[in-house]
Design brief:
The structure is a single chain. With 442 residues, this protein is α+β, with helices and mostly antiparallel strands. It is built from 16 helices and 6 strands. Strand 5 and strand 6 form a beta hairpin. Helix 9 packs antiparallel against helix 10. The longest helix is centred in the middle third of the chain and has 30 residues.
């Protein structure tokens, strides 16, 4: 009896350690709602019918093609975060040519296959949520297509005789799928990647990938509807498309710091050097700030390194809140960050840095669940340097000179007691609002 109680207690403790509890309550409820609606939609779609033996054969072929794509992904490895894939090329034909129950269920099968063959993700709730979102999105695509064509569900509509209308209907269905998918995943993305949602969904690379996947999905659906053996020629095309997507994602990942999602030091310095050269050439103001978290070792020693990593992410989110899209934000070291502020004078840079410093000082960091009454609070010291007035290569117009000046200002801020901003401009050290006001003409 005692052994049984211990087993139950251990299972409860293991359940409490699931990563899903790191999310806010509203997001957990939202995930549960999406998954529940998808399961109810599957139960309702079963009543419509499962189709004929030919439908099951086509389903098996498309799933086999998708499994082959999963195996290719296994070699390259799975990219974490909002990774782009091409599985929709095989799943759109399921939504268009087969009964709606399969459109709702295939994403579940795919997530199971990915979990088994590629990566046994610790964040299983993300896979379950993704399956629910995609199931509803493909279900919407099936509804839209059959509504446009005026055909009953479960009846495959061949393109013969009305090809333009058929292709247009498939295209509109694909757009409906994208709209539902984006709309449902948006709240979760805002919670996990604040400040980056627009770039992830509507950035140039993301839109190009979505358009490429849509076009190939329409072509594959058309080929399968006209002549099933044509699917053989689609497999290498999809593999090549997946390879190009994966290459672009790997290039992006190589630029980023894995813990914070900010630019890594090498990328930040390379891109900042180009911005500084442009500012010198066009005689426009520019400022650089180095940020150091005060006594960050105490956070790691008190709460553990995992909490320390979450604190770094929280501070990175703060930078995105206060800075502009074209500002360059990088992680420069363990607890040090670098901010490049184009079109910003020394006075404006001081004001921005002060707002960031005050916000961090008074706001507890969001680091997940901690024991009652415990919060992670930190302060930061900031050193700011601005381009010199002469606009030449002799006085602070190179990235190394700016970094050296900002580092000198950061040291001054620490020596003055930390939790403050110090500015260096034209060899003038400023560490108060009154003194900063004199830099207005710089």
């Amino acid at each position: 009896m005692r052994l049984g109680r211990r087993s139950v207690r251990e299972r409860i403790e293991a359940a409490r350690a699931w990563p899903i509890w790191e999310n806010p309550p509203w997001l957990r409820a939202y995930i549960a709602l999406v998954v529940t609606v998808n399961l109810l939609a599957i139960a309702l779609a079963v009543r419509v019918g499962l189709g004929s033996g030919r439908s099951l054969a086509l389903l098996g072929i498309l799933i086999a093609c998708e499994a082959a794509t999963v195996e290719f992904t296994k070699r390259a490895g799975e990219i974490t975060g909002n990774a782009k894939d091409v599985y929709g090329v095989w799943e759109i034909p399921v939504a268009i040519l087969l009964p709606p129950v399969y459109a709702l269920m295939v994403p579940i099968l795919r997530q199971v296959l990915v979990q088994w063959r590629i990566q046994r993700s610790a964040r299983l709730h993300r896979r379950i949520f993704t399956a629910g979102v995609l199931g509803l999105a493909y279900g919407a695509a099936s509804l839209v297509f059959h509504a446009i064509m005026g055909s009953p569900f479960g009846v495959a509509v061949a393109p013969t005789g009305h090809m333009p209308a058929w292709i247009l209907a498939v295209t509109v269905a694909c757009l409906a799928k994208w709209s539902v998918d984006t709309g449902l995943v948006l709240p979760a993305l805002k919670s996990s990647y604040p400040g980056k949602v627009r770039e992830m969904l509507l950035g140039g690379e993301a839109v190009q990938n979505d358009v490429a996947e849509l076009c190939v999905a329409v072509l594959v659906t058309f080929a399968v509807a006209v002549s099933l053996p044509a699917i053989v020629f689609a497999v290498p095309l999809v593999v090549l498309l997946q390879r190009s997507f994966r290459h672009a994602q790997l290039v992006t990942a190589s630029r980023m710091d894995s813990k914070t999602g900010l630019l890594n030091a090498a990328t930040w310095e390379r891109e900042s050097a180009a911005e500084v050269a442009r500012a010198v050439r066009t005689r426009t103001p520019l400022a650089l700030a180095l940020v150091d978290i005060d006594h960050f070792k105490d956070v790691n020693d008190t709460f553990g390194h995992l909490t320390g990593d979450r604190a770094l992410k929280a501070i990175a989110r703060t930078f995105r809140i206060f800075l502009r899209e074209y500002d360059l934000i990088g992680r420069f070291g363990g607890e040090e960050f670098a901010l490049l502020l184009p079109h910003t004078s020394a006075l404006d840079a001081y004001g921005i840095a002060e707002r960031i410093r005050k916000h961090i000082a008074v706001t507890p960091l969001d680091v997940g669940d901690l024991p009652d009454g415990e919060h992670v609070r930190v302060t930061v010291s900031m050193g700011v340097a601005a381009l010199g007035a002469p606009w030449d290569t002799r006085t602070g117009s190179q990235i190394t000179d700016l970094l050296a000046a900002a580092d000198r200002a950061l040291y001054q801020a620490k020596r003055a007691g930390r939790d403050q901003v110090c500015v260096v401009s034209d060899n003038t050290v400023v560490n108060s609002q009154e003194q900063a006001g004199r830099l207005g003409s710089v």
